[in-house]
Amino acid sequence: MNQIKLLEKIWKSAGAVLLTLVLTFGGLFANLSTADAAGTPNMTVRTLASEVEDQSQGWTSSLNTQGGRTVKFYVEIHNTVVGTSAENVRVKANIPSNTSTSHSIPVTVWADNAGQASSGVTVNVVNPAAGGKISYIPGTTRVTWDSNGDHILDYNMTPAGNDDIVTSNGFRIGDQSGCNDFIIQVNFLAKITAVEP
Predict the structure, then answer these.
(1) How remote is the C-alpha of 181 from its chain's centroid?
(2) 89, 125, 137, 197: which has the fewest Cβ within 10 Å?
């Protein structure tokens, strides 16, 4: 009889220890999961350019063009940390105002809670030999984005409604979740003006 009571006590004690372990480790994993979800977003950006009139070069990071042509820019913005949200994502393109045979155009993205990332393209004005100017065409910024990740585009070449992409504060897009499903695509146009002889 005493052995049965002893076995009951051992089982109850073992059950209590097991329950304590489950609760302890379950809470630990839940806390780790929460800590991971509250991580810091990481922004990346890719920039390409193409000619509107002659697309034989395709999308490239080094475009050869000439006076009178229109250049289309493609910017891809990605928060690579799944489970995070990049707050107030912004993008800025630095279009030079000088005359040159080679224009370097850096594009920078950032968020309130994430550092900057940059990429860029080079636009070479090969005709005329003296080069030319490149100028943003107002009203051409467009956004394509599945903001909630449901595989239905919430924005599909939607006009930005402003020209902030070329201002110092940049174009504010919104909050971006981390994952490939939430990649933001921005397009805009610029015109090449040849140097007068």
Answers:
(1) 11
(2) 197
